[in-house]
Amino acid sequence: MSAAGREATAVRRAGCVVAGLAALGLVAACGESDRSAPGNVPDRGASLLTSDLVLRDDALDFTEPDLAATPDGELALVWLAFDGGRDRVMVSFRSGTAWTAPAVVAEQHPRHFSPRVAADPRGGFVAAWSAWDGQQADVFTTRLAPGAIEAPVRLTEDPGADTDPRIGVSADGTTWVLWQARRAGGFDILARRADRSGFGPEIPVSDHPASDVQPALGIGSDGSVYAAFSSWRDGHYADGNYEVYVRRLDEIGEPMRVSTSPGADMIPSFVALPDGLALVWTEASFEPIRVGDMHAVAYDEWTDKTYQVSRAVAGRFGPPITLRLSPEEARGSVASVQPLAVRGVGDSLWILFGDRVVLSGFERPFRLALSRVDGDAASQPIDLSAGIASPVSRYAAAWSGDQLWVVDEIDAQGTQDVSARSALRVRHLEPDRLPESRPLASFPRRERVPVDASLALDGAPRARPTANVGDRTLRAYFGNLHVHSDYSGDRRGFEGRPEDNFQVLRDLARLDFAALSDHAETLREVDWWATRKLVDLWNQGGTFVTLPGYEWTSLVYGHRNVFFRDSTVGDQPARFEAPGRTPEDLFAHLGRKAALVIPHHPSHGFAKPVDWRFRNDELQRLVEIFQKRGSYEYDGAPVADIQAELIPGHSVRDALSMGHRLGIIASPDHGGGLGLAGVWADTLSRESIFEALHARRTFGTTGPKMHLFLTVNEAPQGSEILRSAGPVRIRATVEGTAPGLVLTLVRDGVELAPFSFDGYRAEFDWADEEPGAGPRYYYLRARQSDGHIGWTSPVWLDPPAGS
Fold first, then answer.
1. Do 789 and 783 contact (CB within 8 A), yes or no?
2. Kindly report the CA angle at 133 between 127 and 139, in degrees rounded to 5?
3. How many angstroms separate the CA atoms of 29 and 27, rounded?
4. What secondary structure, in 3-state letters, does 696-749 show?
5. Residue 715 CB: number of other CB atoms within 10 A?
6. Which three-class secondary structure string do you get for 506-567?
7. Sorting pLDDT into bands at 50, 70 and 90, what band is 141?
């Protein structure tokens, strides 16, 4: 980014020199002793880490850092710099006491992902990243040294998405690059190695039909090279059993399973120790949940998290040790995220991790912590946050000589102001500042009870349901349009990383489409940019469709999710910032964009009900009738909200009676497996799914993949038609997931006599001989014998013009 007119600066603080940063549009500060240094972010509270560098700029976001160190103390820091329209890969080096001015590594593409850096034992560093050209994502690599950045080498050219690279150099100078590849609809781990003659062909690290994701690269002190990854090959829909596998790369070897738990084992991390490699990963549960008599699996809430540690002995990884790093009960709850294994003083093993603690009902900000692993125990975590919260999973560490170096992403003003830019903070911890390593108290681990198969999420339908409208054949697709990630500040640490949520929605829930709906109030500009990048990266027509979106959270007028047809919308999300801002401001912000506004938990008392005085039939075309809290069909509806007081006059039927033309969906919200959105669309593509949503050819269920199709005078659900002479012909087809179906037709808010069927399938054909004279609507509710419910969107009948 140009910084014409800015004066070049050289700031000298605490033995650290950073020169010429302003000429690149960057500002740096060194040393925590001078709080007035330009760009310095003051540490609030005591810290064991000495501030070394803060990189920030009022016009740029700095995010996704990675750090590497050589044994003799040289450091390389890579990150992404985002200017509001595109991002680029940057690097800065430290030798002695000075950090070099940041330099551009790559900017040839509009979108870059996951920059990684590793030290070369022979000198210098190597880096890898993936970049998106608008059509596909590919992996690139280059060599780095102060004043010498080589031209990037493109390692992949497949139409699929090649992402999430890891890079390292063995003692003999062989460079290894490992990445996650989406080929032919599935995910595999691939690798390439380079000697002095260049890179060789792709090496298939995993070749299983199931998803293999989240690669980790480990290079031992003996020159051995290993890949680790999380695999769905042992998964089934009762407990979502991802497992961690390891495979040796420098010799012929088969993948070895190293995890043993019934939970989801994910996000592995290697560290080389003198006696071999250590592997650390996160284990989590997807808990069974219940609303009334209905059960499901909360596949998008990561709970009961622990760390697993396995050490390699003679090339074999031993049984994992379970570490719970913080209390779960009396002193609060902790949700840990991505662990980073780090080699420490005396060749000890340390884990850098993030968590969020609840103490006496008060939620602390997300913190960065460090814990030493001693045998089968861990030390009390050291809080490294110093009063400034770090975003989830955006940190890195490296141990060089006798110092631990840590880089994390922080808010540039050290506050929770979402309008603030993100900065990078680099600090170091010297061994004489380490507190005494005290073992953790005995925190009991909850016994994991495998989820009963009867509570399992439905797998994909045996055959794709179809329905005919004239000569048009429509297909039923199932999705989740209410998913939160760690970008939502109210549940940070519990929701999972955005990419992890897409992974389980695709693998565990076997959905056809999905969207993130993080709270706009906690989304910084760079978070919204990252969300749209990931949405495009994960979108694959014919397999798994993703839509960009967010949640507009008003504590006065109710909550509304907003979704877009594509990711080209560059605006920041509309936020509810003051009581004076109304849904009209949201509608005006969206203007004529291809967008949808979907109110949810409309009569929920705790979070304020939806104010139905605000209407926009072009944007606000759907409503979420059910989520994990319960049903909002009408006051006193079956499986109504059991978590909060319902406010009369705000239900879905109330909105319909006011004249709103709202189609029906359901989706879970925070951490729920209850709620599912269905559409009748031409194809599984972003354009077709959005068209079906906009046309209101939708249905919602409490979780199972039952499908419901309704026509009124041959017009499908969601239609607005003119009344013709004679009776109204209503036809419906329902395919359930449990036998015993009761179908109830609702006409203008009044339930007509139900139709009962014994099997899994129900069809009826009925003529309404009393169609009335004014506007009228019909929709269908179906209830299974297991208590699960589905709803269709209404069809509206209007009198002919002039009548």
1. yes
2. 30
3. 7
4. CCEEEECCCCCEEEEEECCEECCCEEECCCCCEEEEEEEECCCCCEEEEEEECC
5. 16
6. HHCCCCCEEEECCEHHHCCHHHHHHHHHHHHHHCECCCEEEECEEEEEECCCEEEEEEECCC
7. very high
Cβ atoms of 584 and 724 closer than 8 Å: no
Q: Output the pLDDT for position 573.
A: 81
Least confident of 329-343, 537-551, 743-757: 329-343
Residue with tokens 């995010």: 63
pLDDT at 34 exceeding the cut of 60 = no
Q: How confident is the model at residue 543 (pLDDT cuts 50, 70, 90)?
A: very high
The confidence score (pLDDT) of residue 326 equals: 60
Sequence-distant (≥ 6) Cβ neighbours of residue 333 within 8 angstroms: 357, 358
Report residue 706 as tokens: 């039952």
Q: Are strands 720-722 and 795-798 parallel, antiparallel or unpaired?
A: parallel
Q: State which H helix or E strand residue 306 sits in.
A: strand 303-313
Q: What is the rounded CA–CA span in Å between residue 606 and residue 603?
A: 9
Query: If 0-12 CB within 10 Å is exposed, 13-18 middle and 19+ buried, where does residue 83 land?
Result: middle
* Local structure of residue 593 (DSSP, 8 states): S
**Residue 271 CB neighbour total at 10 angstroms:** 20
Task: With CA atoms as reference, report the closest residue to 93 among 104, 101, 83, 84.
Answer: 101
Give every CB contact of residue 363 below 8 A, 6+ residues apart in sequence.
356, 357
Report yes or no on whether pTM surpasses 0.85. Answer: yes
Q: Residue 459's CB: how many other CB atoms inside 10 A? A: 12
CA distance 409 to 414: 11
Residues 187, 180: contact at Cβ < 8 Å?
yes
Give residue 155's identity as a one-letter amino acid code. L
The structure tokens listed for 364 are 């602390």
* Distance of alpha carbon 674 from alpha carbon 297, whole angstroms: 8
As given in the structure block, the two tokens for residue 603 are 């009569």
Polymer length of the chain: 803
Q: What is the pLDDT of residues 359-410, one digit of tens each?
A: 544 455 577 888 888 888 888 777 787 666 666 678 999 988 778 899 998 8
- Residue 348 pLDDT level (bands cut at 50, 70, 90): confident
What's the CA gap between 385 and 698, in Å, rounded?
46
DSSP helix/strand/coil, 694: helix
Cβ burial 303-321 (10 Å sphere, 16+ → b, else e): bbbbbbbbbbeeeebeebb
DSSP state of 485: -
Containing 693, the helix (H) or strand (E) segment is helix 686-694
Identify the DSSP state of 185.
Answer: T
Report the C-alpha gap between 369 and 406 in whole angstroms.
11
- The H or E element spanning position 623 is strand 622-627
Question: What gap in Å lies between CA 765 and CA 498, rounded to an integer?
Answer: 44
State both tokens at 447.
Answer: 């016994």
